[in-house]
Amino acid sequence: MATEQANPEARPYTAFNFRVEIAVDDVASSICGGSFAECDGLEMTMEAKSFREGGRNSGPVHLVGPVGYGQLTLRRGLTTNLDLWKWFEKVVASGSRGVRATAEVTLLAADGTTSAASFTLTGCLPVKLKAPSLNAKEGLVAVEEMQLAYETLRLKSPAGA
Known about the structure:
Layout: H1 2-6, E1 18-24, E2 35-40, E3 44-46, E4 49-51, E5 61-63, E6 67-69, E7 71-79, H2 83-92, E8 101-108, E9 115-130, E10 141-149, E11 152-156
């Protein structure tokens, strides 16, 4: 057991060490050049379809149903540019039909640089972008909260896992 604790690769993943990257065509290849304190909403749910089959008295049969995805919520972020705001403006502009993005949330290993796992979200649309209260002491552009609706969620394991 002491060997597992000494080996960084054997340690469980921690939730406090992550990176968020968002790429939007026609805006920037990496519009999220900052960091967020919280990331919530990486979820998938499947609605199983159940029916009773004649002659099978032990219980219903469950079939795979439609899959639904959550909304990614990013809180208390700092960035050095205004690309997130530009993306939101582009999405709501007339005739744009919603400029979609691809986001990647990377869970980092204990060393803080090695990727332990990545979640790739496709078809992202910003549904909420909230500025923080303004404070003259801060020198960076801040984002209090951002919510993204997404169409798919895929887990990408690191190489060699």
